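Hello again,

I reread your note about wanting to compare the complex against the isolated chains. To keep things tidy I'm splitting this into two emails, and this first one only covers the full assembly. Below are the input lines as submitted, including protein chains and any nucleic acid or small-molecule components. They are followed by the predicted structure of everything together. The single-chain runs will come separately.
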Amino acid sequence: MSESLLVLALLAAATARGAAPLVLAALGGLFAERSGIVDIGLEGKMLVSAFAAAATAAVTGSAWVGLAAGIASAVLVGLVHGFACITHHGNQVVSGMALNITISGLTVVLGYAWFHEGGQTPLLGPGARFAPIQLPGTSALGQVPGLGLIYREVLSGHNVLVYIAAVAVPVVAWIVYRTRFGLRLRAVGESPGAVDTAGISVSAVRYCALVASGVLCGLSGAYLSIAHNASFIRDMSAGKGYLALAALIFGQWRPLPTLVACLLFAFADVVQARLQGTPLPLVGVVPVQLIQAIPYVLTVLLLAGFVGRAVAPRAIGVPYVKER
Amino acid sequence: MTGLGNNPGVPAAVSGRTRGGWIVPVLLPAINLALALLLSAVVVLLIGESPARALRLLASGAFGNAEAIGYTLYYATNFIFTGLAVAVAFHGGLFNIGAEGQAYIGGLAVALLCLGGGGWPTALVIAAAVVAAAAGGAAWAFVPAWLQAKRGSHVVITTIMFNFIASAIMTHLLVNVLIKPGQQSPETREFAPSTWMPQLHDLARSIGWEVGRSPVNLSLLLALGAGGLVWLYLWHTRWGYALRALGHNETAAIYGGIQPARTVIAAMTISGALAGLMSLNEVMGVQHRLLLNFLGGAGYVGIAVALMGRNHPVGIVIAAVLFGALYQGGSELSFDMPKLTRDMVVVIQGLIILVCGALEHALRAPLDALFSRPAQASAQR
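Full-complex prediction:
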């Protein structure tokens, strides 16, 4: 009994760790897409932040300076995206794709040239990365049967970015639904003309949204390289940005459902890692690769309206051209 | 329509005809390329190498001798196919990011054919492989196209998802099913030599012309033929007209009696077929077996090639040769400048997409203004 409870607790903890970068990136995408800007660049922003964070942490020896560098780099990339799409009415998908491709090359080129380790950054020491945090009272409460186990194994012992991701969900929900900026953000994504008529700058709101997206993607990328792992490796984001985008669509561009989607996708990943080669009742051994494809298949089915319906912000993808 | 808005995909590159004649098709791509190379030069400087020397090494690596040119054309073959694939979709206002997945599935079809058709005459294998590659790619593009046309899910997101699904399926097949027994690396056994795509240097020798050995093969001619067919389809058939009309103005096209669902599905299927054909060059022409990730990102290069070639087959062939030169020259470059890895080419590719695609309005408006002013002045006189 307690054996299987422990397995469940470990699965839950692994799910939380796997979901954290997805949640952060998806919430970033939420800001951008709710303002009407398609954010395929989540992948690139995660990757650039992972690189900048690991490189800076390796040089300075401080995880926090690394995190700041990661966030700054992702915001910068977001601003380039804004320059192309908001200022110059460029195609948002093309711009996002361009940035993703540029960054996938640039991180390796710079990493190779600066650190001479085949595109990797040096392995980070203990101070240069975010270590697991034991929540207060873990040793005392951990002895309590049942709940103590959940507290010790599931809630405690993650790094600070996992907790930031957990806090980010209600905070983002509050910003989007309960603040003046959130109202403007949603309005700009649905009907930019109306917002413009009210005397609010559409461009300014959209640029703010891209900065917010950059900050969250920066946290997400830094999680990969200086919290979950201890160095940057090439193509480290490995499609997680696209997975976050899928989770955002799956969550219908709303914070809480997006969190659920991220947890679901992360859980599928944890299960496939655990199931490798283990036969299941009825179906036998399920190839891990096919389990990995589940999130993508689910997203396609959702978009096609076979499971629920995903309704995007109305003005998404359309550059706003002010009438002269 | 749900997804990313009504018609976000049409870059102005599609509606290329404006005043000035040669400015948009010739001068603009040249300025775009120069700007992208200039940005790349900044990266090279950051690394501490000389951009001028890098460019010289790159050019001689790509065109220095017959063998180098052969390699350049071999890479270009891939990019012609994927560039055409992306361009056909662009003309209908669709953005096909899924060329990667479509080529992957096309490769699967070709590999199954070559593994099974060992005893067939080569001409028959080639004909069947063309059909198989096109069918595989077309099938993988048909589903997102159908979903967009009938269910309103946006083709950009679904093709991205389909790339990942294709990759998962192929990894599963290569690791668990098609793998050659008794070996570690996930790849099929080598095809029988009778199913290999003839090499151009062999063909040249048979007519008494000696050229250096290189992997460029018959697929190059097939790619050029495909370019011709795409040109006919887009500008000399009613289906091509319907597609371009839809890409320019969906409302007007529907008013004119064009059925958007049917047109979208046809265009995406053709686009997928073209992407699938790319596998002829890699799987049948060079590798002679099915490998994991044999594409090397060619599907994404297709985006850059289509944008740079302004979605016209002639432009695409030129842009494909340019990218072929970047890939071939880039690998030569990394021998001479160990600090510059081949990934530098990926950076240039991304910058070209940024400058040609995303920032096209930024460059085009001033150019238009610059060249139209004298014309207006003379008209007033």
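For quick reference: Chain A has one domain: 2-237.

B.
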